[in-house]
Design a protein that fits this description.
There is one protein chain. With 187 residues, the chain is of the alpha+beta class. It has a single domain, classed as Hotdog Thioesterase (Thiol Ester Dehydrase, Chain A, Roll). Strands 1, 2, 3, 4, 5 and 6 form a six-stranded antiparallel sheet that branches. Helix 2 runs parallel beside helix 5. The chain is globular, with a radius of gyration of 19 Å.
Length: 187
């Protein structure tokens, strides 16, 4: 392990303090406004920009736990999204202000299970949800690797706090179509 990694995550009380600060769930760390270029020919935010907005919320959460942009730019490692599921519940349009409630549904040595709820900031309705599985990757060899001790402890504390809450109803969902019922032949 390089010296650089040690200086990024010292065994310091800052990480214990961060772990203690994450005992409230959900985390409300990100807000965003729907930009004009995000609007499609239907007059609402295009599906691609929902993912972008959720990606921005994810970056904010990762920054909060010390494994975000600055960490990745250090060359030590990064969190990669390896699975995503989005649900679109109600449309938002240009200029709408959005707020994101984020929950750490699980965390282990290498993975983080993250859930976001996108709400209209003014009207309060749930517009969309996103669920991500993230994997920590060592950027030197581009392979999965354990999350550094400090952020891992803070993420585990956040997941433990979240476990006391009811599971989000839209989490853990798959996507499928049931085959139509067999229709008897015409006589």
């Amino acid at each position: 392990m390089s010296t650089r990694r040690h200086t990024l995550f010292p065994r310091h009380r800052r990480w214990r303090m961060l772990a203690a600060m994450t005992d409230t769930a959900p985390l409300e760390l990100h807000r965003e406004t729907v930009l004009p270029e995000w609007i499609d020919y239907n007059g609402h935010m295009n599906v691609a920009y929902y993912l972008l907005a959720f990606d921005h919320a994810t970056d904010t959460v990762l920054d909060h736990f010390g494994v975000g942009r600055a960490y990745a730019e250090s060359g030590a490692g990064s969190m990669f999204v390896v699975e995503a599921h989005l649900s679109y519940l109600r449309e938002v349009t240009q200029g709408d202000r959005l707020r994101f409630a984020s929950r750490i549904l699980g965390a282990d040595a290498k993975r983080v299970h993250l859930f976001h709820a996108m709400h209209h900031a003014d009207e309060g309705f749930l517009a969309a949800t996103a669920e991500f599985m993230l994997l920590h990757v060592d950027l030197a060899d581009r392979r999965s690797a354990p999350i550094p001790e400090g952020p891992r402890a803070a993420l585990a504390a956040a997941a433990a706090a979240d476990a006391a809450l009811p599971r989000p109803p839209r989490s853990g969902r798959g996507i499928a179509m049931r085959p139509p019922a067999a229709v008897p032949p015409a006589r």
